[in-house]
Amino acid sequence: MTDASPPPAPDDEPDRPPRLYPSTVGGALYLLVMAATAVGIAIVGLGPWRSGVRVLAGALLAAASLRLLLPSKDAGMLAVRHRAFDAVLLTVIGGSLIFLTYSIPDQPV
Known about the structure:
The chain is mainly alpha-helical. The protein has three helices and no strands. It has one domain. Helix 1 packs antiparallel against helix 2. The chain is elongated, with a radius of gyration of 22 Å.
């Protein structure tokens, strides 16, 4: 009896090990934005929520700036829609968070 499995196609590539680094500059910067977001969430969880939300807002505003500066082919995960839409949305959300941290009054403990 012969083996019933077909021979591999000539254009099949051998299995490569997974890549452990981003393939674009924007991908690396996206990881930095995500790290800043994680730091902001950790700060919120530890108590001084206003500071943590400001860090989150700063990460969003940095992402908006990076999205405007980087060309689309290098933006990586920062590019979701059109450049202007991404930048405006990130700026509005980041600005709103900063506005809210200053406008919400302190509550007695």
